[in-house]
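CO-FOLDING WORKSHEET

Operator: S.A.
Ligand of interest: pyridoxal-5'-phosphate
Run index: 419
Mode: holo prediction, single chain
Checklist:
[x] sequence pasted
[x] SMILES validated
[ ] output reviewed
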Amino acid sequence: MSRSRFEPGVGAAARHMNRAMTATETTPRTDLRSSRLRALPPFLFDEIDRKKRERLAAGADVINLGVGDPDQPTPAFIIEEMNRAMREPVNQQYPAVGGGLRVFREAAAEFMRRRFGVVVDPVRHVLCLTGSKDGIAHLPWAVTNPGDTVLVPDPAYPVYEIGAALAGCRVVRMPVGRETGWKPRFDGELAADGARLLWVNYPSNPTAASADRAFYESVLGWAASRGTIVASDLAYSELYDADKPVSLWEARNADVERTPAVEFHSLSKTFNMTGWRIGFAVGHARIIGALQEVKSNVDSGTFNAIQVAGALALRRFDDPIVERTRALYRERRTLAVAGLRAAGCQVDVPDAGFFIWARCPESGGVRDSMGYAADLLERADVVVVPGAGFSERGREYIRVSLTSPTGRLAEAMERIQNQ
Ligand SMILES: Cc1ncc(COP(=O)(O)O)c(C=O)c1O
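OUTPUT RECEIVED:
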């Protein structure tokens, strides 16, 4: 019998988990972390940060193309709204319980209607999140039981796997590669029946790939026949070049009243609000309700004033300032693609997002990303993320972020070519 495409990669977090569980006896008493925590793979950026700090301590002028955190400020109209809202005593109290302020949820529902043509009920289908990461990490607590299978793309944003592993799930990786546009294939041959939850993320971090409506239709079709909940992460929906990313809820076989699915949105990237911590989930009422129940037990919601300012941001998603942000990333995308290609990397031009996923140059075979990234840091003082940090399947790739000032990005490209 042929092996399922889903079989090969039982997640790294799960493997670490087994190791840590069996290592409990021998762990020194000074390590006070739970075996659950010790089981997690090291946070990807910790190791890169450590190396970067070493270079900075040595006096180097390091250009960081590693972390995706916008260099641009939050638009002034959002800050002004925040200023006003935080002066109101009612906004200084515990945030509204029950999934977020009405004004925020209505703005999110209105955004879904105007941007994607999707009609949802602001109360039953929308939940305010303290950043989309909050919802992504907590979703498995809401809809899975320990031991359930959770399917995650490989490579992917690590929180899908970590959230599932922390909730005691069995993580199974779906290998994706360039030959399928960095998408899992849902063609009926898969032997992952019984999976409780499946993650997709387009525009993707780290692969920069996009998906169309037909892709979501095939995911939902596959999941429906197996009773699997679909979770889609649309954090980069507004940072597109020409083609606007679509919502899972635009799929012809998606119906928010009946389809067991949920989509995560973030204000972080669209409005340069990473530090504010605000996003939302939009999905089936039972999933939204379950996630709300988890959250009401572990946090007390997002600062009301941030929700009020976030509501205004969502209502002005088509403000010229967002178009200027897109234009800025377009310019940087062109610059970085040309620069990386000149350095010998193979790059597909992304449609959206603010990452470039570049195959390392050839040198008697494609270079390993760990070695290449280490060389770029040591010889060019440029930080990139080695794809191997995401998974073995990312071994030949580096992820380059477009969130540094354009002049610095240009300088980094020169240094990469000259090292
Ligand atoms: C794919 C993806 N999803 C979600 C997030 C989390 O974003 P936030 O919690 O700021 O909304 C990130 C952040 O880098 C991301 O890359």
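REVIEW:
The radius of gyration is 21 Å.
Residues 1-11, 14-25 have pLDDT under 50 and may be disordered.
[x] output reviewed
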